[in-house]
Q: What sequence folds into this?
């Protein structure tokens, strides 16, 4: 071959390589992640009971909602998130994103009426806009591995009273509610068999359009893959594992799918159910198991087959030059900005949801198994966790915020190349019809006042200007009504709650040093008189829940004041105040969590924008 021909061939090769890279960027491969939607179809009808809910006095529309009191004592909103979910989907449609992942808790306790409603919504968006949905199970989707009867005592009924809705009459002998209970099978908790069948079109089973699909139990390889073979091995009976120290088999809904060329989505079913000490002897008794909310700490004990499978998948992805994106319901990395140790010392191991924090072993093992990017949910927080193993493997764990909590949003992953990824958080702040249920809540509030309830909520929440403000009010009331009395040590709470910022600042008195510090930061003592210990606690929860997204609401000036107060508290003689200062400082200084770039080649994360 002549030099001229060799040069021409090399030029064509370079041009082809550049074109391939350009095509990748021009296609702008994007995947949206919506975690913890907790969708309840508030306008759905029961299949076996004519009860429609209650009539909206303003619109005449019937709705079946939970009480505001129930919402404000829960870490999730039950009702308005229905509208937020639709808003998020519409936003995704406008952005032209065609791949959407739901990392668990897509439903609220796997109730048939709500799962059917979700399936209908996803099917409509699939058919109308060509969106492919991929889901995995959370602890509120498959509460126990098998179906069980369930009761909710806090639906909103006639005249603002609580309405019991149950799938069984047997558990209602101690019913003290004013309204007679509604009985319907549509409120029970479905198990794996029912949930996976209902949601089969959203990743749990292979489709002809998938380029590849497998489970931890598949016997074929990437090279000899056929849709027919995948179908045969996808049946639920072939996707089971033996529970440790028992002869019981449970389903595993994990799967790997290649929906678009070069991209592998790894859905890990990290629901790990702990067997009871005394088993019933039945093969499908839901009560033989605890719930799955602990996550990966129990996966290592009861589902160790998953780690072996993940290793094989990661190796296959490398060999076949696929970009592997993992997702599951639970975090793989500590999510408290490395403050879990201090939180445990101050609040106790059973507080602040610390039992859900994955051990360092979890991050190490999955990093070494080959997982570099993992999207999780469960905690209803916006957070990024990074861990590098002793072997030098780095895992980036991205916690997706919930649409049913503060700060409501979803994540967009943009894949620029096999090593450069971009993650952006989209806040769903303005939601159509979010306040359309206010008339119901006014009836509830009036009833609570009339009955002189001890647990009455602040009706100012009904004046929220938009959905973001509504979730901010939800968090504020949640802190007041639940977190303060349940999580905070009484003596510590008393020492901080009603103090002003000035009191906290001067807790370690050093007049001249303090004066110089304030002057250097363009602050005055009067600035600290504008807020209290309660405000600091509330802003701690804002930061813990929303990360960088909370900064605009708190304000940089206030954050600077908190920084100075923490510096003063660290010098106090009270070990609890010192711990509080350490926790708060770490919470203010986490990894980028709003808009950032991940460089997988150099294991770097860089902030792209700061609000």
A:
């Amino acid at each position: 071959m002549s030099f001229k021909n060799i040069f021409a061939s090399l030029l064509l090769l370079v041009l082809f390589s550049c074109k391939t890279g350009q095509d990748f960027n021009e296609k702008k491969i994007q995947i949206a992640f919506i975690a913890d939607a907790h969708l309840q179809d508030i306008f759905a009808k029961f299949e076996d009971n004519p009860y429609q809910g209650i009539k909206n006095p303003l619109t005449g529309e019937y709705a079946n909602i939970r009480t505001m009191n129930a919402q404000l004592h829960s870490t999730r909103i039950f009702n308005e998130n229905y509208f937020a979910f639709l808003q998020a989907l519409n936003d995704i449609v406008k952005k032209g994103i065609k791949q959407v992942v739901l990392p668990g808790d897509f439903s609220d306790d796997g109730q048939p009426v709500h799962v059917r409603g979700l399936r209908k919504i996803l099917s409509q968006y699939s058919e109308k806009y060509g969106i492919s949905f991929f889901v995995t199970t959370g602890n509120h989707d498959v509460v126990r591995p098998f179906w069980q009867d369930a009761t909710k005592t806090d639906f909103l009924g006639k005249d603002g009273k609580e309405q019991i809705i149950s799938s069984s009459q047997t558990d209602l002998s101690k019913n003290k509610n004013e309204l007679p209970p509604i009985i319907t099978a549509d409120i029970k908790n479905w198990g794996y068999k029912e949930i996976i069948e209902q949601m089969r079109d959203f990743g749990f089973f292979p489709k002809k359009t998938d380029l590849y699909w497998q489970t931890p139990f598949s016997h074929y390889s990437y090279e000899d893959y056929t849709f027919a073979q995948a179908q045969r091995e996808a049946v639920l009976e072939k996707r089971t594992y033996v529970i440790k120290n028992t002869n019981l088999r449970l389903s595993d809904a994990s799967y790997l799918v290649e929906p678009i060329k070069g991209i592998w989505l790894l859905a890990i079913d990290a629901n790990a159910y702990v067997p009871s000490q005394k088993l019933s002897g039945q093969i499908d008794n839901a009560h033989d198991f605890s719930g799955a909310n602990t996550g990966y700490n129990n996966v290592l004990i009861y589902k160790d087959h998953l780690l072996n499978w993940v290793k094989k998948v990661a190796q296959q992805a490398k060999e076949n030059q696929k970009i592997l994106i993992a997702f599951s319901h639970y975090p793989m990395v500590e999510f408290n900005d490395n403050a879990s140790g201090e939180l445990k010392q101050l609040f106790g191991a059973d507080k602040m949801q610390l039992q859900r924090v994955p051990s360092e072993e979890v991050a190490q093992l999955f990093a070494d198994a080959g997982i570099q990017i993992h999207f999780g949910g469960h905690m209803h927080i916006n957070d990024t966790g990074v861990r590098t193993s002793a072997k030098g493997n780095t895992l980036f764990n991205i916690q997706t915020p919930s649409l049913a909590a503060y700060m409501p949003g979803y994540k967009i992953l943009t894949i620029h190349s096999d090593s450069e990824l971009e993650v952006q958080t989209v806040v769903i702040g303005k939601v159509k019809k979010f306040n359309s249920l206010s008339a119901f809540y006014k009836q509830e509030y009036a009833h609570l006042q009339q009955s002189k309830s001890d647990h009455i909520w602040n009706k100012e929440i009904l004046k929220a200007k938009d959905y973001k403000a509504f979730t901010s009010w939800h968090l504020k009331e949640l802190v007041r009504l639940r977190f303060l009395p349940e999580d905070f040590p009484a003596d510590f709470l008393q020492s901080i709650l009603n103090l002003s910022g000035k009191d906290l600042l001067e807790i370690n008195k050093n007049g001249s040093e303090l004066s110089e510090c304030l002057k250097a930061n363009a602050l005055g003592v009067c600035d600290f008189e504008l807020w209290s210990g309660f405000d600091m606690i509330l802003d701690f929860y804002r930061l813990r829940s929303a990360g960088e997204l909370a900064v605009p609401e708190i304000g940089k000036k206030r954050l600077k004041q908190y920084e100075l107060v923490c510096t003063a508290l660290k010098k106090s003689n009270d070990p609890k105040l010192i711990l509080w200062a350490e926790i708060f400082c770490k919470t203010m200084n986490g990894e980028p969590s709003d808009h950032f770039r991940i460089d997988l080649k150099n294991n770097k994360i860089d902030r792209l924008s700061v609000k």
Residues 3-27 form the longest helix (25 residues).
